[in-house]
Design brief:
The structure is a homodimer. Chain A is α/β, with parallel strands linked by helices. Chain A is about 45% helix and about 15% strand. Chain A is built from six helices and five strands. In chain A, strands 2-1-3-4-5 form a five-stranded mixed sheet. In chain A, strand 1 and strand 2 form a beta hairpin. Chain A is globular and about 55 Å long. The N and C termini of chain A lie far apart (about 55 Å). At the A-B interface, helix 3, helix 4 and helix 5 of A face helix 3, helix 4 and helix 5 of B.
Chain lengths: ~170, ~170
């Protein structure tokens, strides 16, 4: 983990909340498209270098998860597949693919909003981010703006159920 | 799993070898670029619909693994993130990210050449492809043209060591 990330963690935990708010803005873009509201930002030296939100149905692509989009953009900017001095903020616990992409791109620190008990792979079904068997292990902070992040998901699925019910009538 | 895949599996196992040879051709393209020689093809109705090979260093992107590239192309062709009637052939056991992408895109059948004991996630470090906890479980065949697939990797790393040694002298 870079010195920078230690600084954030020890001296200014409020920065995590600030960057999670930006990830929530991304999640709201997904919501507007009728996609599960999941958003992500990647930060280096206190600057957001990449953003992403879930567009899986819109793009007809599994690879349009929020984290994958953000990692792709960050690597393009860094001209490197290694994102060793970055922190990734995501509103929902990553799936197995996104947790894998985080490890593969050697992101040292991950900040998560809400957990995803049924499918999450950063502590729920698996904990891919913190497995000593792999050649990279992340530092993970969970539960940052958790209520807001999980609230977005709950509202989305409540809207979806209402819409399905009204279409069925 | 689709009826088609059952037919391959039961009646013509030789088809798996035939498609793995095509994945090996892709792996050789990576080798020529100086990348770890890993190749992948995705097959539907006996036709290869997508190909990919490892270009991680060339593209400066973690997302340029062979399987991710092939999944991206197949989804573009299918205009669907679900690849429910496809078989994926890959020369080396997938990493955690690629195994995750296979599950996320609901590919029903995966055929693997060589295993990757230190980092593979289809039976070695993890077995993401066959976890009943997820909403999709693959059928996996391992060891197809294993010697040729692992031989490519061994030659690549042998060449790399020689090159590093000669540069150090």
């Amino acid at each position: 983990m870079s010195k920078y990330d230690h600084r954030i963690l020890k001296n200014d935990p409020g920065l995590d909340e600030q960057f999670m708010k930006e990830a929530i803005k991304q999640a709201k873009k997904a919501y507007k498209l009728g996609e599960s509201p999941i958003g992500c930002v990647i930060v280096r030296d206190n600057i957001i270098i990449a953003r992403g939100y879930n567009r899986r149905n819109t793009d007809h692509s599994t690879l349009s998860h929020a984290e994958i989009t953000a990692i792709k953009k960050a690597s393009r900017l860094a001209e490197d597949w290694r994102l060793e001095d970055c922190t990734l903020y995501v509103t929902l616990e990553p799936c197995q693919m996104c947790a894998g992409a985080i490890i593969q791109s050697r992101i040292p620190r991950v900040v998560i909003g809400a957990m995803n008990p049924k499918a999450g792979c950063a502590g729920s079904v698996l904990n891919i981010l913190e497995m000593p068997q792999f050649n990279h292990v992340c530092e993970v902070r969970r539960g940052v703006l958790e209520d807001e992040c999980s609230g977005l998901m709950k509202n989305f699925f409540s809207d979806l159920r209402k819409s399905l019910k009204s279409n069925a009538q």
